[in-house]
UniProtKB/TrEMBL annotation:
This is Low temperature requirement protein A. Keywords: Membrane, Transmembrane, Transmembrane helix. The lineage of its organism: Bacteria, Bacillati, Actinomycetota, Actinomycetes, Micrococcales. It holds the Pfam family LtrA. The chain crosses the membrane at residues 30-47, 59-80, 92-112, 118-136, 148-165, 171-189, 210-229, 241-260, 280-300, 312-332, 344-377. InterPro entries: Low_temperature_requirement_A (IPR010640).
Amino acid sequence: MSHVNVVPLLRRMRPRDPHEPHRVATPLELFFDLVFVVAISSAAAQWHHGIAAGQPGDLVNFVMVFFAIWWAWMNYTWFASSYDCDDVPYRLLTFAIMGGSLMLAAGIPELFASGQSGLVVGGYAVMRFAMVAMWLRAASSHPEGRRTALTYAAGISVVQVLWIARLALHGHFVLLVSFFSLVVLELLVPLVAERRGTTPFHPHHIAERYALLTIIVMGEVILAAVQAVQGALRQGAESGLLTLVAGGLLIVFSMWWLYFKRERVSLFEGGVASTFVTGYGHYLVFASVAATGAALAAGVDVVQGEAHASTRFVGLALAGAVAVYGWCLTVMHSMAGARAGETGAGVAVGGVVLLVGAAAPSVGVTVLATGLVLATAVAHHVWTTRDGVEAGGTAQPVG
C-alpha cells in the first residue's frame, strides 16, 4: 500500500516548538542547500582562477559575493527553524529563493570581471524580497512575534533597496566602502529584531543545518583532490601532484574531524552572544573551506604548468584559508567551554600553517605540510580527550 505525502494548500505559519524531539533537516532544506552550493562553487571557481593568475584583488570579489550567498542562506535557515510550516506558499517562496540563488550564481563571473553585476544584485533581491514575504506571513499568523517579524521585514526591505541603489555607484573605493557599509546594516537587522522578541529556533536543527552545509562545501576540496589525481594520471603519476593529492586529503579529512570534535549543539546553546558569534562566524568557516578548495585547484594548475601565479602566492592562499578556518573553530569552541590549552593549541596551529605557506619550496610540499600540521592537531585532540575519558569523563559519539 502506497503512502502519499499531502501538502496543505495553506496553513497558519505558527512558530515551531524549539524543543521538538527528533527534528532533522527536511528534504526541502537539503534541496535548498544543494542549489546554494552551485553558487558557492561558482564563487570558488572564480577565486581559483584569480589565484592561478596571481591576482590577489579577486579575493575582495570572493569575499563580497560569498557574503551575499551566505547571508541569504543563513536568513532562510534560521527562519525555517522557527516557522517552517511546509505548505504550498512556503514551498513556492523557498523555490523563489533558490531561483534567486541561481541568478546570483550566473552573474558571479561578471562581478569578478567588473566589480558590479546587475544579475547578482537581481538574484539577491529575489532572495531577500521572498524572505520579506516569509516574515510578513509570520507576522500575520503569530501575534506574539509580530513586532520581531515586522522588524525583520522592514529592515530587509530597506537594506535591499539600498543594494539596488548601489548599482548606480562607480569607482573601486566607493563600491568597497558602500559594500561594507551595507554589510553592517544587514548584520544589524537580526540584532535589532531579536531585541523585540527572540525567534523560537531549534538548537539541534540549526546545528545540523550548519554542519550539513559545511560538509557539502568540503566537496570543493575533494573535487580539487580528484582533479589532481586526474592530472597525475595524464602526466604519468608526477610526484608533485601525488604529494598534492595526499596533502589535500589530509587537509579535508582533518577539517572535518576538527569541526566535529565538539558536540555541535553546544555552539548554539551558550547564550545570545555565543549564538550570534557562531552563526555569524560560520561565514568565515564556509568561505575558508571553499577558498581551500580553490587554492588546491590552483595548486594543481601550478604543478601542471598551467598557472602564472608564484608558488608562494598559491601557498599563502591555501595557508590563509586553512588558518582562518582553524581560528574560527577555535573561537567558537572556546565560547562553548573549550579549555585554555585547547584554545592556545588552535591559535598556534593557524600560525604554523601560515609559516608553512610562506616557507615551503613547492606547492606539493606546502599542501602536504599543511595537511600534516592539521593531522597533528587532530592527533593531539584525540590523545587529550582520551586522557579525559580515562580520567572519568564520558565520550559522546558524533551525530
